[in-house]
Design goal:
Length: 58
């Protein structure tokens, strides 16, 4: 009887760990792209602002 309870308990712990870990991994990936990769490339707004300021100064 104890062996069956150990197997069931094992699966519940695994389920809780997966439910907690998957969002954490996704948040880490999104945060990396937001903070590290995105600043390397200018957004459309930044390009338009830079083009307007370059045109006004000439």
């Amino acid at each position: 009887m104890d062996l069956i309870a150990a197997v069931v308990w094992h699966w519940w712990i695994a389920l809780l760990l997966v439910i907690g870990t998957v969002p954490l991994v996704i948040a880490t990936i999104v945060g990396y792209f937001t903070k590290v990769v995105a600043p390397r490339y200018n957004s459309r707004h930044q390009r338009e602002t830079r083009a307007q300021s370059a045109g006004e100064s000439e």
